[in-house]
Amino acid sequence: MIRDSLKWLLLAGTIAAVPLSKGIAHPLGAASPSEPGAIMVQGWPGWQGGPGWGPDQERREHCWRLRNRAREIRDRMYYAPPWERERMERRLWEIRERAKGECWGGGREED
């Protein structure tokens, strides 16, 4: 008897979950991909920007690359031979100074 009840309970749960999954997949009555002429686009809620990269995005990417390069040099300095550390320190200083002048927040590292 318990086994039959459990089977019916699982069946009822599955039937109840199907409409929920459809509601999650297509919130607010969004068009399904099977409709002709429907184009599915995903974006941030409330975002008003246009396609492509703007100058702000390019700057963020550039600053990210500078921070990433500084982090790589700093990590490699721990294992570098002593005669190479001075050159690596100078390069790290140059990258940090460049980041101070070109990036928001003065090139602060977010570690």
- Poorly predicted spans: none
- Rounded to an integer in angstroms, the radius of gyration calculated over CA atoms is 27 Å
Report the biggest beta sheet as strand number plus sense, adding barrel if it closes: none
> Mean pLDDT, as a whole number?
76
* Helix/strand structural class: mainly alpha
Oligomer: single chain
What is the distance, rounded to the nearest whole angstrom, between the alpha carbons of the first and last residues? Answer: 60 Å
Note the run of SSEs as H and E: HHH
Strand content: under 5%
* Helix content estimate: 55-70%
Q: What gross morphology would you assign?
A: elongated
Total helical segments? 3
Q: Kindly state the number of beta strands.
A: 0
What does this structure look like?
- Helices cover 61% and strands 0% of the residues.
- It is an all-alpha fold and 111 residues long.
Helix and strand layout, with pairings?
Layout: H1 2-25, H2 55-77, H3 82-102
Helix pairs in contact: 2-3
In short:
This protein has 111 residues and is mainly α. Helices cover 61% and strands 0% of the residues. The model has no long low-confidence stretch (mean pLDDT 76).
